[in-house]
Structures are given as C-alpha cells and as structure tokens.
Amino acid sequence: MNMTKQRTIVKLGEFELALSHPDKPIWPEAGITKLAYLQILAELAPYLLPYTSGRYLTTIRYPEGIHGVSFYQKNSPEPTPEYVRTAQDGSIRYVVLDSPQTLLWMGSLYSLEFHVSSNEIATPLPNTWMLDIDPSLEEEPRLMEATAYVGELLRSLGLHAVPKTSGATGVQVVMPIERGPSFEDLRAFGKFISEYLAARHPGLFTVERLKKNRGDLIYLDYLQHYTGKTLPAPYSPRARPFAPVSTPLTWDEVRRDVKPADYHLLNIRQRLSEQGDVLAAAPRQLLAPVLASLPSSL
C-alpha cells in the first residue's frame, strides 16, 4: 500500500483503490484513521477471509467513525465493482467477502464489522457447531469461568472446540465438524449442552430467551447458530472503543481469565504472526457418534 502526493491511492499488488478522507478518525481512542484501518485490513485478510468466503455477509457501516450514526447493510452497496462477487438469497443480493480487494472496498465504505451467516451458500450441511455465550452484564467477571465450563463439558464428550471472543461482551465456542449432522441436529446438541450446564450451574447460566428475565445470569444461546442467523466472523473488528477484534483463544488463555478487550486492531497482527490462527489449526470433530450416543437427550 502507498499514497501518492496527488491523491490517496491504496494499492495491493496491481489493485488500486481511490480513498477519500484518509485521515478521518474511525476509532479515535485507538488513533486509527481510515487509511490506517485499510492498511490493517490488508494484513488481516489472509486470516479473516477464510471465515467469510462462501457465506452471506452483513456489515455494519459507520460513515463518521464509531461514535457516529451507523446502519446494517445486507444488500451490496451500489455501484458494486466488477471484482466484487455477490450471491442472491431471496430479495437480498449479498456481498461475498472472498477477496482482499472486496475487503478493502468494504473498509473504504466504513464497514467496521463483518457478520456472516451460519449457513454456507453452496451447501445446506454445516461444517461448524457453535455456542454463543452471552452475558447479561456489560462487564461480566465470570465470563472466562463460564467459557471454561463449556470447554470441560465438551472434552468430557471427547470433543475439542475453540473459544473466541465476540469482540464485544461475550464469547462463542466454535467447533469445526465433519459434515453430516444438520442444523437441526446441531441445535438439539446445543440445547442439550446448554440445559445441562444451566442445571449444573444455576447461579451462572440460563437458557431463558427473554433478556428481562435473565437477571445477571449468562445466557447460553444455542439458537443463534442456524440457517439465516449471523455472528461476527473470527478476526472481525468491532465498532467499540479501542477497536476490539473477535479473536480465537487457547484454553490456557481462558484459564488465565483474559478479557475480550485484550485483543484489538493494534495488536492482533503481532498475535497472529507469533502463534497463527488457533481456530484454523483445530481438527474437525466427528460429532455424529456423540449425537447417536445421546438419544434420550436429543
């Protein structure tokens, strides 16, 4: 990437993108301008794109930075450049975020969050199981304790999953799986896991859907991973002060009680250069035998 004296041009190989307002503060507390954001996105692309390619994209755009007005966007912004691939689902023409060029274009339009569909475009059978751990409190000191309980239960079933911060207040536990089980199967498994934990730790967890009835309990949302539902992609930034990033963790980090705000746009590149993507390294789990072994619960 570089900048000419006549006008600001973002370059990525042969690709060029004209950039307006390069000095506009996007995350003012972190000192991240629009140009700096695109430079970081270019470095994050190899890690983010594997989780957004092949899925329907919903973005949240903040034309004046994180403290300004925002809006969700599902339909591809117009005009859509030729290099941007789209996919139709019903009446919506979604962007398919599958190239660095598309990522930079979206960033130039102040897309600060990248949420992707649980379902893939090309196949109805999921390749991931996920449980959303959603605190009722804005700052939940028991968050990593709760995450550890989920991990321990899965390990007791012979399964390995990867926790990732949402980048906001919660955590998603992500388990890459071999294709076979349907979304209905995965939802039933998530219900079993969630109800078991809520019964085992009633002062910590709830499966109550209505937020007003949860008190200070942590909601285990097994319903969010389903066709048409979205969650922030791994390595998506979040439009919150100091630019947190949805970051896969090790279980050692969970035991050390790390905080979602510990991982952000200013340090995520160093983390990835030092230890790589711990989610990409996770082996796919064979969930079908576990589902078959729990017939009375499922």
Order of helices and strands: EEEEHEEEEHEEHEEHEEEHHH
CATH topology (fold) name of the largest domain? DNA primase, PRIM domain
Q: Spatial order of the strands in the main sheet?
A: 11-12-10-14-13
Mean pLDDT: 95
Number of strands: 15
Radius of gyration from CA coordinates:
20 Å
Architecture per CATH nomenclature, i.e. the level-2 architecture of the largest domain: Alpha-Beta Complex
Helix content: 25-40%
- Class inferred from helices and paired strands: alpha+beta
User: Which range does the strand content fall in?
Assistant: 15-25%
User: Which residue ranges are poorly predicted, with pLDDT under 50 across at least 5 consecutive positions?
Assistant: none
CATH superfamily of the largest domain: DNA primase, PRIM domain
What's the domain count?
A: 2
Sheet with the most strands, sense and barrel status: 5 strands, mixed
The count of helical stretches stands at: 7
Shape: globular
Distance N to C terminus:
52 Å
CATH class of the largest domain: Alpha Beta
Pfam families: LigD_Prim-Pol
Protein name: Non-homologous end-joining DNA ligase
Domain DNA ligase D polymerase: 33-278
EC number: 6.5.1.1
Can you offer a commentary on this structure?
- The protein is of the alpha+beta class and 298 residues long.
- The chain has 2 domains: 112 residues, DNA primase, PRIM domain, CATH 3.90.920.10; 149 residues, DNA primase, PRIM domain, CATH 3.90.920.
- It is 26% helix and 23% strand.
- It contains 7 helices and 15 strands.
- Strands 11-12-10-14-13 form a 5-stranded mixed beta sheet, covered by helices on one side.
- The chain is globular and about 60 Å long.
